[in-house]
Amino acid sequence: MSEIKRLEIEIIHYQSVEELPEIFATLLLEARHAASHSYSPYSHFEVGAAVLLQNNVIILGSNQENSSYPTGLCAERVALFAAATQHPGVKVTAIAVTARKAGNKPFEEVTPCGGCRQVMSEYEDLHGKDITIVMEAGKGSVNVVKNAASLLPFRFSHANLK
Ligand code: THU
Q1: pLDDT of residue 55
Q2: Ligand 1 within 6 A of 74 CB?
Q3: pLDDT tens series, the chain, 162 aa
Q4: 2 Rama sector, left if φ>0, alpha if ψ -120 to 50, beta otherwise
Q5: How many CB atoms lie under 10 A from the CB of residue 146?
Q6: What are phi and psi of 83, to 5 degrees?
Q7: What is the rounded CA–CA span in Å between residue 72 and residue 144?
Q8: Which of 101, 130, 129, 95 is nearest to 113 (CA)?
């Protein structure tokens, strides 16, 4: 007998940055700052990310593109890999992500790509700790989900390699 399974995720929607818990507001503002360091002459899409570590350090990332397109990297992974390198073993608590079109346009809704969700969930597994994801949601509003796993249900993980 077949059976249908449904998955549900919880998204907390905030109307404005001011409504966010203070540390997440700070993190999103840092991500917005990081977006100004985007190197995106091909997509003209500027992405910024800010990773909060358990030692309260914030590490920034921005998307870095290349004339050989696939060699570029998303803002989230730039930040996560830098954090893992500069603060080895320190757990990741949260990541904020934002984006805008080039030319100082307003920040707009963005969600991490599948590859970045996979990388976030790897660190969740490694550290045994949820990573809160704070996402720009347009018109100054913000979406928050409690972990990367909820953005990547049915994922591939180290458990598949056993
Ligand atoms: N991008 C990110 O930096 N993060 C995402 O989660 C989605 C996409 C970047 C990659 C590329 O430089 C540009 O946005 C357009 O895809």
Answers
A1: 97
A2: yes
A3: 999 999 999 999 999 999 999 999 999 999 999 999 999 999 999 999 999 999 999 999 999 999 999 999 999 999 999 999 999 999 999 999 999 999 999 999 999 999 999 999 999 999 999 999 999 999 999 999 999 999 999 999 999 999
A4: beta
A5: 16
A6: -60, -45
A7: 26
A8: 95
H or E element at residue 14: strand 12-14
Q: Which of 30, 46, 76, 136 is catalytic?
A: 76
CA distance 107 to 70: 25
Told to judge if 122 belongs to the known catalytic residues of this protein, a careful annotator would answer: no
Contact (CB, 8 A) for 125 and 149: no
**Are 11 and 143 spatial neighbours (Cβ–Cβ below 8 Å)?**
yes
Claim: this prediction has a pTM higher than 0.70: yes
Give backbone dihedrals phi and psi of 97, rounded to 5 degrees, phi first: -140, 140
Structure-token match 């992500």, residue found: 97
Cα angle at 132 between 92 and 82, to 5 degrees? Answer: 35
Give the distance (Å) from ligand 1 centre to CA of residue 116.
Answer: 10
Q: Is the CB of 65 under 6 A from ligand 1?
A: yes
